[in-house]
Amino acid sequence: MPTLAGKGRIELEETPFFPQEELQCGPAALATALGAAGVPADPAELVPEVFTPGLEGSLQPEMLGAVRRRGLLPYEISGDLDALAGQLVDGRPVLILQNLGLASYPVWHYAVVVGLDPAMNTLVLRSGRERRLIMSAGKFHKSWERAGRWGFVVIRPGQLPADIDAAAYAKAVAGLETAGRFEDAALAWEAGLVGSPDEAVYLFGLGNARYALGDKAGARASWERFVRLRPNDPAGLNNLAVVLGESGCVQRARSLAQQALAGLPTGDPVAEEIAQTLETLRARPAQPEPTGCQAPQP
Question: Whole-angstrom Cα distance, residue 233 to residue 68?
Answer without folding.
Answer: 29
